[in-house]
Amino acid sequence: MKKTNSFLKSKLLPIILCFTLIMSLSVIYNNGSMTVDAAAAYPGDAAVSNKANYGTDVIYQIVTDRFSDGNTANNPTGALYDSTKTQLKKYFGGDWQGIINKINDGYLSNMGITAIWISQPVENIHAVFADGSTSYHGYWARDFKKTNPYFGTFTDFQNLVNAAHAKNIKVVIDFAPNHTSPADPANVNYGENGKLYDNGTLLASYTNDPNGLFHHYGGTDFSTIEDGIYRNLFDLADLNLLNNTIDSYMKAAIKKWLDLGIDGIRMDAVKHMPLGWQKNFMNTIYSYKPVFTFGEWFLGVNEVDPSYYSFSNDSGMSLLDFRFGQKVRQVLRDNTDTMYGLNAMLTDTANSHEDVRQQVTFIDNHDMDRFGQSGVSTKKTDIALALTLTSRGVPAIYYGTEQYMIGNGDPANRGMMTGFSTTTNAYKIIQKLSPLRKTNPALAYGTTTERWINNDVYIYERKFGNNVVLVALNRNLSSSANITGLNTALPAATYSDVLTGLVSGNSITVGSNGAVNNFTLAAGSAAVWQFTATSDTPTIGNVGHPMAKSGDTITIDGRGFGTTTGTVTFGTTNATIVSWSNTQVKAKVPSVAAGKVNVTLRTSGGVTSNTYSNFDVLSGAQVMVRFVVNNATTTFGQNVYLTGSVAELGNWDTNKAIGPMFNQVVYNYPTWYYDVSVPAGTTIQYKFIKKNGSTVTWEGGSNRTYTVPTNATGTVIVNWQP
Ligand code: NOJ
Ligand code: NOJ
Ligand code: CA
Ligand code: CA
C-alpha cells in the first residue's frame, strides 16, 4: 500500500501532471477526441428540445423491421413473416422495442447519434403479393391514425420516444401522405385495393371511390413534374390532397404523431405532391408543434433540377441532399469523378439552396446500393463517413453502414442488421466526429472553402466566427501525397488529428501566418484538425423553423450573443424576445410584410451579427387553393402564371408569379391549373398572366377577387379575361 503510494508520488505524479497539461491543451485544440457531453457543453443547439434545428445532430436511419426484434410476440405470422430473415420482401420482426433496447444499451448514443429516423410508423396493409412482397418497409399505409402492429402499439411508440429523449436522441418518423398502397383498377383483389381507413373506418378503396379521395389518371411516366404529381407513383394509389376529407385527415393524423412527442419528419415522395399542399401542411405543423422536416426528392447521378431547389427554398422544409450523396459515391467509391467534381458540387449547392446547412446528407440509403461493396476496401466507407460528418448539412447514417453491411438494390440493401459491434473503425469514426458537430459550430453552421486540391486529394476548411475545422482527404488507396503551400485559418499551433489516426491521419503544425508546415498525407486517409473558439462576435448559424407567420416563436442558434438580452430584427422591425442566452435566442416573429426577410441580432453591447437572409414570413395561416383558368391559349414558348396581392402570389411582381401552371393531367390545354398555398380567410386579388421569358401579357379587365376558405381547401375556376 505504502510502497504504491510513494511510487505514485515519486514516479507517476510528474507523468500525471504532464499528462494533465497535455490533456488541458487538448481541451482547447482537440476536444473532438474526448467524449464530450454535448448537451452540457452547449445546451442551446444541442438539446433534444430544440426541434427546429438539426445543424448539430447526427441522424441514424433505421428500417424498423430490419434493425432489432425486441418483442417476438408482435411478429406477423404466415406468409407475411420469414423467421430465417432471408426472404427480403417479408417481415423479419424488427420493432420499436428492439430500437428501445439499442437506445438503452447505449449502442446509439455511444456512437454519438442524436436523432433516429424510423420507418413510417402507421398501420400498413397486411396483404402479401404473389411475388411475396409485403409492407415491411412501411410505405404502404392503410390507416395513418393507427400504428403498424408489427412495430408495436401506441404505448410502445411512446416508450420509444421517452427512451430516446432520455438519451438526448430525437425521433424522426417517415411519413408518406402521397399514397396508400399498390392498387390495380382492373383487379379489386390486388393487395388491399389501396383502401384507406380513418382509425378503423373505411373511407374508400381505389375502385370504390365515390368522393374522389384518390387520383385516377393511371401511372406516371415521370416525364414532367405535373405527371409525377397527379398520376400514380408506380402502382401506388395516389391520394387527392385537394379533397377536403384527405386534407383534414392528413392534418389530424400528423397531429396525432406530433402529440406523441416526435421531433422530426422525413416526408416521402415530395416530388409527387403539389408544392402548394406541402407548404400549407408545413404551416399546419409549424403552427401546432414545430419539428424539423426534410423531404425526399430523388436525384440520379449528376442530375441537377431547378425545381428541387425551388422546393427546398419555398416549401418550408429541407430536402435529403441527393446531389451530395450521389457525388460522394462517384468520387469516393466509384472513381467516376474527381475531387474537383466534389468541390464543384459543394460550391454549387451552397449557392442554390437558401440554407444548405439544414439539408440532410448521406452516402447511402434504402433506395440505393449500399456504399460498401463486396471486395472493395472499407477505407472508402471510412473516408466517405469522415467527409459527411464534417461537411455542411445534417448527416444521416444508414443503419449498418457502421458495420460495413453491403447489398445492392432494393431489397438487398435492407438486410437484417448484421451485428452491433462497437469496435468497427466506422463506428469509432462516427463516435469521434459526432461530438465535434456539437462543440465546434464550424461543422454545423460554417462556410466551406477549398484549401488544397488535386484529382485525389481534397483539403477543405469549415469556418464559423473564429471556429475552424480543417479536413484533409486522400482517396488514393496506394499513393500518399506531399502537401505543400497549404494555408488555413487555424491559429498557430500544432494540431493532432481528431480521428486519432483511425483513417491514417497525421498531425499538422501551423505557423503564425496560417501557413501549414509541409507534410505527407498518407494513402487512403482522412484527417481532421480543429480549433474551437472560447469567445466570438455575434454570429447567427440558424433560424428555425424556416418559415413562420407573425407571432410564431422561432429559435436563433449561434455564438457570441452575450448573456444579456439584446435585439433581434426582422427586416427593420424588432421582435419580442422570449429568451436570450449566449448561444440561443428565442423570439416572436414581428408583424412585418410577408416574404423573404433578413434576420439580424444585436448584443446588449450594441454589436450587430451577420445577416441571416431569406427567412420566409407568411401572410398568415395557410390553406391550399386550386386556381383553374379556361381558354388561356398561348403561343409557343408562352406559359400561364398566377400573380396577386399577397406574398404567396408574388405581390404582383411578375418575376415571382406562381407557375408555369399545369395543363396536361387534371385539366388539359387551353385550361391551366395550379395548387397554391395562400393565406386562410383572406380576401385576395389576383390575375393570370402569360409569360414568355421576360415578356408578360396581362389578363384584361379589373383584378379578380377571392376570399380564401378559413379551414378547408378551395377551388377557383374562371375564364381567361381577354
Ligand atoms: C421513396 C421511398 O424512400 C421508397 O423506399 C418508397 O418505396 C417510395 N418513396 C414510395 O413510398
Ligand atoms: C401550346 C402552348 O403554346 C405552349 O406554350 C404550351 O407549352 C403547350 N401548348 C403545351 O401546353
Ligand atoms: Ca417483433
Ligand atoms: Ca401524388
Task: From the structure above, extract its key features.
binds calcium ion, Immunoglobulin-like, 26% strand, TIM Barrel, eight-stranded parallel sheet, disordered N terminus, single chain, five-stranded mixed sheet, 23% helix, alpha/beta, globular, 4 domains, 722 residues, binds 1-deoxynojirimycin
Provide a quick synopsis of the model.
This protein is an alpha/beta fold and 722 residues long.
Description:
The chain is of the alpha/beta class. The protein has four domains: 12-439, TIM Barrel (Alpha-Beta Barrel), CATH 3.20.20.80; 445-531, Sandwich (Immunoglobulin-like), CATH 2.60.40; 539-618, Sandwich (Immunoglobulin-like); 622-719, Immunoglobulins (Immunoglobulin-like, Sandwich). It has 15 helices and 38 strands. The strands form eleven sheets. The chain has an eight-stranded parallel beta sheet with strand order 12-11-10-5-2-1-14-13. Helix 10 links the parallel strand 11 and strand 12 (318-319). Helix 8 packs parallel to helix 9 and helix 11 packs antiparallel against helix 13 (378-390). The radius of gyration is 27 Å and the shape is globular. The chain starts with a helix and ends with a strand. The model is unreliable at 1-41 (pLDDT under 50). It binds 1-deoxynojirimycin (2 copies) and calcium ion (CA) (2 copies). Residues 69, 71-72, 74-75, 93, 95 line the site of one calcium ion (CA). One calcium ion (CA) is lined by residues 178, 229, 238, 272-273.
